[in-house]
Amino acid sequence: MTEEWDVRTVFGTDAKVVNSIQRAALRLTR
Question: What is the mean pLDDT of each run of 10 residues along the chain (30 residues)?
Fold first, then answer.
């Protein structure tokens, strides 16, 4: 269960980071 919880947490943080990076990339591109 610890591994699954860890994976979920990592996925959640990764998604947030990816979202912020994508937004920043769009701002820099534009």
Answer: 67 85 90
